[in-house]
Amino acid sequence: MNFDNIANGMLSLFVLSTQEGWPNYLLNFIDASDDENSAPILNNNQFSAFFYFMVFLFVGSLFLLNLFIGILFINYKMAEE
User: Residue 41 gets which letter from DSSP?
Assistant: First the structure.
């Protein structure tokens, strides 16, 4: 997967937010090169890819998904009353 178009980018972010198989994506993004016509370079952008993935995992998964689940529970309680 890559971020070359919206569909691939959204699928990659969905995999990150569900936390299923994200280490495989991380390894592929670490080896990505800046030039679109060249082959992947081993550990090319190690820090930036790792930093982006960790920030997205903590903010996206832990905060936003828990917020969404909390809103669902509040609405369920309101409907129950």
Answer: -
Q: Distance between CA 53 and CA 13 in Å, rounded?
A: 9
Q: How far apart are CA 10 and CA 17, in angstroms?
A: 10
Stronger pLDDT, 1 or 14, i.e. the higher one: 14
Q: Is there a contact between 52 and 72 (Cβ–Cβ < 8 Å)?
A: no
Determine the pLDDT at residue 76: 94
Q: Output the six-digit token pair for 35.
A: 């030039």
Q: Is the predicted pLDDT of residue 74 greater than 90, yes or no?
A: yes
From CA 50, how far away is CA 56, in angstroms rounded?
Answer: 10
- Alpha carbon 41 to its chain centroid, in Å, reads 22
What's the residue count for the chain? 81
